[in-house]
Batch of 3 targets.
Target 1
Amino acid sequence: MEDLSRLCIHTVTTKPWDIERSIDEYARAGAGGITVWRDALAGRNITDVRRRIADAGLTTVSTCRGGFFPSVDASKRKAALEENREVIAEAAELGAPLVVLVCGADPKQPLTDSRAQIVDAIAELAPEAEKAGVKLAIEPLHPMYADAKSAINTMKSANDAAEQIASDFVGVAVDVYHIWWDPDLETEIARCGDLGKIFAFHVCDWRVPTRDFLLDRGLMGEGCIEIPTIRGWVEKAGFTGFVEVEIFSTEYWSGDQAEFLERIVEAFKLHV
Ligand code: ZN
C-alpha cells in the first residue's frame, strides 16, 4: 500500500462532516494528519477532540485560522489581537503546533499600511505564541484577495514579513492555490527554506475555468497547477512535513463525502 503517512486533510475539505466523523474517516483512509478549522470546534470540548484525534492515530498539523489584523480603526486592530490570542490558546489546548494566518487587508487604507500593521501585530504576538508553544504561519493569498482578505500576496512578501519579524515561531504556509502563478516562486521557496521558515504546504488545484473565486477549488490533477514541481521545490528547500489537502468546493461539498475522500486519496497518490 502506498504510504499516506504524510497526507493531511483540512476539516473544511469535507465540510459536511462534523469533526468526529472527519477524524474517524481520515484515519480509516490512512491519512497521517488533520488540520482543524476552528468552526469545526464550535460547541466541542477541545480536550475531548484532542483525545479523539490522538486515539485515531492522527497528528494535528495546524489550526485554521488566525489573522485579519489590519484596520483603519485602532480599536478593531486591538480586537483582532485579542481574537488571535484566543486562537493561539485554543491551538495549544488542542495540541496543534501551528496556526495558519490569513493576514487581512482593509480596502479603506493603502496596502502598504495594511502590510505594516500585519507585521506589527504578528511581532507583538510572536513572543506569546512562543510561550504557548504554537508557531504562526503567514499564508500569502492570491492577489484576487488583496482587497479585503490579505495584503500579503506573494511568497516574497510573506518571506519579507517573516524575516522582518525575526522570530523562530513565525514562518510561512506555502499554498499552491495562491502562489502557483508567480514567476519568482522557485527562488522565493528556496529563500524561505534557507530562512528555515517553510512551516506548512497546502495543495488543491486551479480549475479552468474557475467558476467561483472562493468556493471552486479543484481536486489535485484536475486543474493547471504543477503540484509535483512545486512540491519538489518545497522539499528541495528542506521541507519534510505534511502535504495538506485544503479544498473549498460547493460542488464537492454537495456530493457524497466518503466518495470524495476516496478521490482525494487517489489524487494524492497520482498528482501530488
Ligand atoms: Zn491554505
Target 2
Amino acid sequence: MLEVSKLSKSYGKTEAVKNVSFTVNEGEIAVLAGPNGAGKSTIIKSVAGLLKYEGKIEICGYDNKSIKGKSMLGYIPEMPSLFPLLTIKDHITLMAHAFSIKEYEERAERLLKLFDLWDKKDKYGSDLSKGMQQKVSICCALITEPKVLLVDEPMIGLDPKAIRNMKEVMLELKKQGVSIVLSTHLLDSVEELWDRIIIMKNGEFVLSKARDEFDKQSESLEDIFFKVTEE
Ligand code: ADP
C-alpha cells in the first residue's frame, strides 16, 4: 500500500506539486495523467525517494526513505539507465543481491524469457537498443518482488509484444496485491488496467476517482481526461 500525504515540491520558485494526498491500496492500479509539466514525474520521483520534498510518503507503513520502505518499492523510470559494462544477467544478479532476494534464478529466467531477453542475457548494457534497455529495467524492478511499483511511461519505447507482456505482468502483480502507480500520456494503452485515475494540472489534482465512482462505466479514460483538463 502506498500513502502520500500533503506532498509539496518546489524547484526554486516553481511549485511543481502543491499539497497533494492520495492512497493506492493493495492490488490497485492508479493512473497518473496530466499535461506536460503538470507534476507527474515530480510525484513519481518523490515517491521513489529521489527528491527532497515536504510531506509524508509511506510504503506499506514505512517511510519511503527507510531501508524497509525502499526494500518494498520498485521503480521503472521513463529513461532506463543501465551499466554499459554489465551484462543483462549481471544487472538482474546485482538487483537481486542488493535487495537480498534469494532463489531468484527461476523468476529471472521467466522474466527474461517473457521479455525475449533470455538468449541475450550475456549481452552488455552498451550493446542494447533503447527498447531492450527498457525491458531490462522492467525485469530489474520486478526481480525484487516489490509491494509498490512505480512505472513512469511504461509503454514508450516498447514493441507491441513487450507492451502486451507488460500489461499481463501488471495484471498478475495486481492479483498478487501489489500497488501500482502508472504515469502515462498514452491513456488508451492503460484502459483495461486502471482502478483509480488521478488527473493533475499545474501541480494540483483536478480529479482523483476510483473506477467504480464513475456513473458511465463506458466512459473512456481519454473522455474523462479531456473533460477535466479542458474545463
Ligand atoms: P510532468 O511529469 O507532469 O511533465 P514535471 O513533474 O516533470 O511534470 O514538472 C512539473 C514542473 O516542475 C514543471 O513546471 C517543470 O518545468 C518543473 N521542473 C521539473 N523538474 C525540474 C527541475 N529539475 N528543475 C526545475 N524545474 C523543474
Target 3
Amino acid sequence: MDDCLFCKIGKKKIPSKLVYEDEEIFAFEDIQPQAPHHILICPRKHLISLTDANDEDAAVLGKLQLVAAKLAVARNLTDGYRTVLNNGRGAGQSVFHLHLHLLGGRDFRWPPG
Ligand code: 5GP
Ligand code: ZN
C-alpha cells in the first residue's frame, strides 16, 4: 500500500523510533504515547484490521503478541502491561494498517474506555 502511513514507516520512508524488526514484523514508539511505554507492533503485510485477516495470517497475528511479551520483559514491565488491538472506527482505530498497542509503566483501569 503506497499511501499507508505504517507501510511507509516499516519501509523507513517515514522516520520512527524503531524498537524491533524482523522479516515479518516491525515495532516502533507511538508518536503520542498514552503510557510511559507505548509501542506499536505491526505485520509488514498490509492488513487493514483483524476483520481483514485470514487463516494464513494466524502465525503472524500470534507473533505480534509474542513480540509484545518480549518487549515487555526487556523493558522490565513486571507489574503488568496491556496489549490492545482497536478494530474499526467505533473501537478507536485511526490508522488502517493492523497494529497491536503495547502499553506499560502505569496502572490500567478495567473496563477500558
Ligand atoms: P489506533 O488509534 O489506530 O489504534 O492507533 C494509531 C496510533 O498510531 C495512535 O496511538 C497514534 O498516536 C499513532 N500514530 C499516528 N501517526 C503516527 C506517526 O506518524 N508515527 C508514530 N510513531 N505513531 C503514529
Ligand atoms: Zn499498510
